[in-house]
Design goal:
Length: about 425
């Protein structure tokens, strides 16, 4: 089937386009045409004039296994390690463990989906997440190599820096690692360690980098390495964050990530708002919203080597996030200010996953299973069985857990705990 998306504003994000039809082929899952003209199609999806069509958003760093609430820990810490100890000895960790790993991955998928995210990088060893990610509605990156971190006290998730990085080069996939998430002597040596091992180049994706020096940043720029900025998590655990202004001025490719909600942002929209306000607080100037939008689209796609994603252009994968237009005339700013109530529609590979019930006729053209439920004050259509899922997790927990990143309101008269 071929359908055209028309109406609204298209943010590619390199350009802002009006009166442009975007034609999707559901067989190839790609955008096959864009233009003022409208070729023959099987269906037209009409957006409101105020709607804004973005590429499907990408959350460049999350741990789906850690999808729980609230945050845990008493910072500021010296490095991530004592936070990890605090987490694992906290009663909330036991509460979370009443849910299965698959439950937590579904919860993470819904958390990301309702905030407009289509693609997530889940930082976890393949042996843990591989059996859990393929049935999820959103796309979870499966082609990557990794280390947990690069220090003597890391969690040994990979087979060693050299081996993991070399495989990333050979397979043209990212090598992803936390780095410089702390201020002890070893943490601050992260960039030197990777350079010495020949593991710092365009395949390398560094998470955090809160203790990067000016010299480190010069090296990252020269080596074309990528950095994922996680301001909420950094500020919660360390009361500081990566030297983001300097990184951007040096031309380092920066993406944005939430980390898990047990230390980081509730979801990607929350993270964008926090990133914007923290930047203003730290530098007494505004971070251009267009730069932040690039961090959750093109920059993230480049870091994760998803070269057909993160942009609305012919031959790109048909992933879209539609956001309700705000008062601003700047569509980038509209996305940076958006919250869950502003997410109108999310499409992956041409298939709608989540959206306002306004789009019911569009959803009804697809044979997937959906449920309608109140989320963020509006009747929404959600892929899968979110009502059953929420009741099931509350049953396992033994009480009606409130999860602000999954604010589902069950139909009237339906008890939360079955
Ligand atoms: Fe992390």
């Amino acid at each position: 089937m071929r359908y055209a998306i028309e109406g609204g504003t298209v943010v590619t994000p390199d350009f802002i386009l009006q009166e442009t039809a975007v034609v999707v082929d559901t067989e190839t899952k790609k955008i096959v045409h864009m233009g003022k003209d409208m070729p023959r199609v099987d269906m037209v999806l009409s957006l409101e004039k105020t709607d804004i069509l973005f590429p499907g958003l990408i959350n460049a760093h999350d741990h789906l296994l850690g999808t729980y609430y609230p945050r845990v820990g008493k910072g500021p810490y010296l490095n991530w390690y004592p936070w990890d100890n605090d987490l694992k000895s906290h009663p909330l960790y036991e509460e979370r463990s009443r849910l299965s790993n698959q439950d937590l991955y579904w919860l993470g998928a819904y958390k990301n989906l309702i905030s407009g995210v289509v693609v997530v990088s889940d930082h976890m060893p393949h042996a843990v997440n591989e059996p859990l990610i393929h049935g999820l509605p959103i796309f979870v990156l499966s082609e990557y190599t990794l280390e947990h971190e690069c220090s003597s006290y890391d969690l040994r998730w990979g087979r060693g820096i050299t081996l993991e990085h070399r495989e990333a080069q050979e397979r043209n996939i990212p090598f992803i690692t936390h780095l410089e998430e702390g201020f002890d002597e070893e943490a601050t040596m992260g960039v030197d360690i990777l350079m010495e091992m020949g593991a710092l180049d365009e395949y390398t994706v560094l998470i955090h980098g809160i203790s990067l020096s000016e010299k480190d940043i010069e090296i990252l720029a020269k080596q074309k390495a990528n950095l994922v900025w996680c301001p909420s998590s950094n500020y919660y655990m360390f009361q500081t964050t990566a030297p983001i202004k300097h990184l951007l001025e040096a031309g380092v490719n920066v993406a944005l990530g939430t980390d898990s909600p047990m230390s980081g942002g509730l979801h990607l929209l929350d993270e964008m708002q926090f990133a914007s306000s923290l930047y203003e607080k730290l530098y007494q100037e505004r971070l251009d919203p267009a730069v932040l939008v690039r961090m959750v689209t093109v920059n993230a796609a480049r870091a994760l080597r998803l070269f057909d994603q993160g942009r609305i252009t012919e031959n790109a994968r048909a992933h879209f996030t539609v956001i309700r237009g705000g008062n601003s005339h700047n569509p980038y700013e509209t996305l940076v200010r958006a919250d869950l109530a502003d997410v109108r529609l999310v499409i992956r590979d041409g298939v709608p996953l989540y959206g306002s019930s306004h789009f019911l006729p569009f959803f009804s053209r697809f044979s997937h299973h959906y449920q309608q439920v109140l989320i963020a004050g509006e009747e929404r259509i959600v892929i899968g069985k979110p009502i059953h899922f929420y009741r099931e997790i509350c049953k396992k927990l033994g009480f009606a857990k409130q999860l602000p990143f999954f604010p589902i309101i069950l139909p009237e008269g339906m008890a939360v705990c079955p």
